[in-house]
Specification:
single chain, eight-stranded mixed β-sheet
Length: 279
């Protein structure tokens, strides 16, 4: 059995925002052994508050208050456009805490300025975290100690894998690649299902085949030691069906367009830091 993340006598975690990513982390923490009594959530929407209480049994408040003073770790799971208001409402109640942000685009120097502390770590997770299969990239400001980093690792590993970045600017690329990446996968699965259905399969069959193919191919790519192009070439016999499909994709410029789309997402992530990070 995996040991609990924290000793419940000294661990208190506060979430500012109770949406999907907060839910993924809360669920992971509870499964790993952290008592629900050690978690509090600030969530302005009544429906979401009720769901959090029903699903997890954690304490949920509509607005920040003195109870936040107990938190040793504060996780910011708010939308980028609401971060500044939430920070200004909450900062007086959380002096001395370590702060972990999962908000896209908002840079750590901006967060540090809003909160009045340098103990800030930024994270870019993705939605497979909801089923424990997430991928999270992390960047810590210099004031975050080795113990702070370990605490963050213990939290995010409950939702999947993680890696540390040396430069904060790399988080924009991570946002474009893996943060937004699940949507790209769903997009291609949708296309495969549509094609399969149009070619005579029922929608359920086409979905099962498309999803199973992505799952299997991803697992193979994860386990294989060969380069990706070698894996691709093994499936591609010249003049065969796969070769014909790949030639069609190249002629349509799909690969170049896909790469350009990821660049566009990266630029948007950078722009969000400018747009929502203004003080």
């Amino acid at each position: 059995m995996t040991p609990p993340i924290h000793d419940s006598s000294n661990a208190n975690i506060a979430f500012i925002g109770g949406g999907n990513m907060a839910s993924a982390l809360i669920g992971g923490l509870l499964r790993r052994g952290l008592p629900a009594s050690c978690i509090q959530v600030i969530e302005p929407f009544a429906e979401q508050r009720a769901r959090l209480v029903s699903q997890f049994g954690v304490a949920v408040s509509e607005a920040p208050g003195a109870g936040l003073q107990r938190a040793s770790l504060v996780i910011w799971a708010v939308k980028p456009q609401t971060f500044t208001d939430a920070a200004l409402q909450s900062r007086a109640h959380m002096q001395g805490a370590l702060h972990l942000s999962v908000a896209a685009g908002i840079r750590s120097d901006t967060i540090a300025g809003w909160l009045g502390t340098e103990r800030v770590v930024r994270a870019m997770p993705n939605t497979p975290a909801l089923i424990g299969q997430g991928m999270t990239a992390l960047f810590a400001r210099p004031a975050a100690s080795a113990a702070d980093r370990l605490e963050v690792e213990q939290v995010v590993e409950t939702t999947g894998n993680f890696l540390w970045l040396e430069q904060e600017t790399q988080l924009d690329a991570v946002t474009a690649l893996s943060g937004s990446g699940p949507a790209y996968v769903f997009y291609f699965i949708e296309a495969m299902v549509q094609a399969g259905t149009e070619m005579g399969l029922c929608p359920e069959q086409a979905r099962q085949l498309a999803v199973g193919t992505f799952v299997g191919a991803s697992a193979l790519a994860k386990e294989a030691t060969e380069p990706l192009n070698v894996l691709r070439e093994r499936v591609t016999s010249k003049g065969g069906t796969t070769h014909t499909a790949l030639v069609s994709m190249e002629q349509s410029g799909i690969k170049a367009a896909f790469i350009q789309a990821i660049y566009a997402a990266c630029q948007r992530a950078s722009d969000m830091g400018d747009e929502f990070g203004e003080k």
